[in-house]
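Progress against Task 2.4 (sequence-to-structure conversion) is shown through the following example record, which the project officer requested during the mid-term review.
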Amino acid sequence: MQHVENFAVEKKIGLYNAILDAEQIEQLSMAAKGSLKYFGEQLEELRDKVSKVTAYEITQEVVDAFNLRSRYQDSEIPEDKIRLENVNELLNSIAIFTQNNPDLENSLEVYLQEVSLLTDIDYWDPENNAVTLMTLHSAKGLEFPVIIITGLEDGLLPISRAIENKQDLEEERRLFYVGMTRAKDHLFLLWAKRRFGFQNSEYGMAYKNVPSRFLREIPLEYMVRPFSESTDQFDGRQVRQADMDFHHQNQAVNFDEPILEDSNYSVGQWIVHDAFGRGQILGIGKSGQGTKLTVLFPKNQIKKIIAEYANIQVID
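Structure tokens generated for the chain above:
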């Protein structure tokens, strides 16, 4: 790329135009010229489509055209796993934006403008009477009268890749503690029963979540309302998981399946199965045979069982 940059400076053109003119760069090998030519042609094709398709469609084409997902998925470099998560989350965010704005023209441009308006902590004004959005990392050293922490679900906080590693899990717990201690007067801890996410290349789909294990570590006497009035999925009980040695890696149940709202079971509830042992319910559906439970068992085993026929007991 140094040769391309030098060529751009010499010709007083942008880097993009220098890539399109790569065949004129004498210092490059024929293979490099060919690769840059192909890269430039791909970019040109994508630029032509920007105003003709939705923001999600063009972004998906970029990811597919340059094999970003497979490149990061097959990599052994830890940082590439994070890059893959970032790509997935970007696609998910754009998918939701596109669904909410189906008739919008030049939606990618509008999406980018909207994202650029997000508050940057570097420009935070403590005198400004407004809600401030920031990451837990950005909040270090700051204090606010009221703190609201969202996304308290296993797979988000703690992040899925940290659950298997005790050291990484402890770092996630420490980060959560940092966030909680930013509050001077009031602290609100929120988790979503349903969240849009990605699974098996499906973006913008709703999935059920399991409350963060960190919530269950908080003593009840410090909680004003340990569960939502609309659901009994989390009751604040001190569930100990030291003997479980597993995680669900954000494996949620697709809402395309029927969901039983009047079931005797609830997502997040713990059960014991004669053959599989102790497990946590991730999803509840209906089949021709009865109530279908999706349950996470030790060693990361996810099983679908029929409650009426399985010999299970609910753990109080």
